[in-house]
Amino acid sequence: MGSLLEVNNLTTSFYTRNGCVRAVNDVSFNLRKGETLGIVGESGSGKSVTCYSLMGLIPQPPGKIEGGEALFDGVDLLRCGAKALRRIRGKRMSMIFQDPMTSLNPYLKVSTQIMEPLRIHEQLSKKEALSRGIEALESVGISEASKRIHCYPHEFSGGMRQRVMIAMALITHPELLIADEPTTALDVTVQAQILELIRARQRAEGSAVIIVTHDLGVVAGMCDRINVMYAGKIVETGTAEDVFDRPIHPYTVALQRSIPSLGIKGKPLYTIPGLPPDLSVPIAGDAFALREGLTNGGQWLETPPPMKALSATHWVRECDVVLPELEALNDVR
Amino acid sequence: MSVFRKLSPDACRLPKPERSLARVSDGTSLWKDAWNRLKQNRLALVSLWMIVGVVLFCFLGPIVLRTSYVEQILENTLLSPSAAYPFGTDDLGRDQLIRVMVGGRVSLGVGIVATLVSLLIGVVYGASAAFWGGKVDSVMMRIVDVLYGLPFTIFVILLMTIFERSILLLFMVIGAVEWLTMARIVRGQVLSIRRQEYIEAAVALGLSKRRILIRHIIPNVLGVVIVYATLTVPNVMLLESFLSFLGLGVQPPMPSWGSLIKLGADNIQEYTYLLLIPAGFFSLTLFSLNFLGDGLRDALDPQSSRD
Question: Is there a contact between A287 and A230 (Cβ–Cβ < 8 Å)?
Fold first, then answer.
């Protein structure tokens, strides 16, 4: 299958009072039709900014897309202009946001909001749009949809609102769905339902999905491929098997170790020492080596580490960092 | 390594439709909620009825009575209230009852129309400034600052002496001054709403800027605007009566509450009723509007109540 989205050397910066923050630095990846891509990383690693850049949601100023291209079916999303972008956004690609409590307009009925993309992109009449809206709500598992559609957002629970958001995002049958931490604001019991719902809808619609999360457990079960991001750069990319079963980059390994699991009892949970680096200071070498308490060989202190290919699908950024505690943990396992 | 596969196939079955025990009623909008809260506030509710009463009195009264507010019966000057003249007569023998009604019509009319004018200009101006942002915003708000700096009384006196004194000019002058604050308030609100996630979501759905402004931002500003408008009406009425008191407002024989109070103040020693009746109506209306405004604020923004 052909490539649906091709991102090459995307760089996005924010010009703040403390200087220029390079939130996304030279990120490239591609996405085939119907494929699921997971983007994982800590807070501030540039996952969300990558998605916001693709959707044209970076507030400019202070943000600025410095370079690169994002080809969506041949159209460069970063340069195609507001009008062309509007025709793609909400019709061919759409987005689910992190917090369902604030991403619906509190003053408008759900029906008005869910019908909006249909009314502007497909020029449907009110009646047709309403029946499509009810169908969409039913497809995300909301009972009595024909009545509930006339309610206001505050009459829905968090999980139901996220379902409404999913229904809204998928109502125009987009080819690409970007989910920016769709489960972070929900409680654990609802999280699995929402993920399964996204997966089921994806299968039914055949859309490609980019799912952004800091929870490796979330992406493990549903992604075909995974990008691990650190300090605005991709440090490891590969198929889900590559990244989970044969992680190479110490950051990926450390992220995995910090997932609570039922396997090991009585041991303190591993946490990665230190904090991610301050991105407003230019980083010459390996950003991960700058974390406090890490020992490193020092080969990549001055020059940026390159990516190297381990197999056709699995790429990893060079890194000499050794995580001392991880060695000990490995012995236990 | 399968410990990391948190999503095992049976861990998350297809979501069952959520069933709630409560009956799905028709949606209750935030407006309806606010109205329900307002109904709990007795002071605001009494004020609302008071205002309705005064408005009916002033606007329907002259239609029912069919007497003239300019007709002078010179043998009946300065009569105390009686059965024939419930509010008495003034120094030219005109029926004070009908004059209070017509004066109220003028005062309320000025209050409402000037507020609507200021509302329209202020909302459009403030919302555009905030929405386009950047340099446009700076320039637009600096213009407002400059206009704010003009001494209002001198401005009005100038206009009133240069142009012919007409009630239309009065509307325009007051409206032109009152929209400044409205524009500032609306701008502040829009600035904060523009950063809300549902606006981002609307952008992500491919809505045009204009549609987002009209459909998503303005309705969210309306609550604040309504509250401020209710509090602007008494302001404007006060302004009008102040101008009429100085003789710059409505021109005789057309009465307004301001000019009636002026007449009463001139005769306060002998004919107190000439002052008390219009002043009573005026104060009652102002109090009611202020209490209603406060009540609306509490109803529309439950967080700010009880402070």
Answer: yes
Among the partner-chain residues A57, A102, A108, the one whose CB lies closest to the CB of B204 is A57
CATH class as words, domain A3-92+172-332: alpha beta
Among candidate residues A178, A288, A285, the one with its CA nearest the CA of residue A230: A288
ipTM beyond cut 0.90: no
> What does the pLDDT look like over B148-197, one tens digit per residue?
888 877 877 787 778 777 777 777 777 778 888 889 999 998 888 888 88
Task: Retrieve residue A145's tokens.
Answer: 């949809």
**Cβ–Cβ contact B49 with A under 8 A:** no
Interface check B21 vs A, CB under 8 A: no
Q: What is the DSSP letter of B89?
A: B
Residue A324: asked if its preceding bond is cis (omega within 30°), the reply is: no
Question: B135 CB near a chain A CB, below 8 Å?
Answer: no
Which residues in chain A have Cβ-Cβ distances shorter than 8 Å to B200? 57, 97, 103
Domains and CATH numbers, chain B: 40-64+92-301 (1.10.3720.10)
State pTM to two decimals. 0.71
Q: Distance from A38 to chain B by nearest Cα, in Å?
A: 14
Asked if A100 and A158 touch (Cβ cutoff 8 Å), the reply is: yes
Crossing angle of the two packed helices A158-170 and A110-121, in degrees rounded to 10:
10
**Domain map (residue ranges) of chain A:** 3-92+172-332, 101-171
Which residues of chain A make contact with B19, given a CB cutoff of 8 A?
143
Contact B5 A221 (CB under 8 A): yes
Q: B2, B7, B215: best mutation site toward chain A, by most A Cβ within 10 Å?
A: B7
Over residues A40-91, the pLDDT tens digits come to: 888 878 888 888 888 888 877 787 888 888 888 878 878 877 788 888 888 8
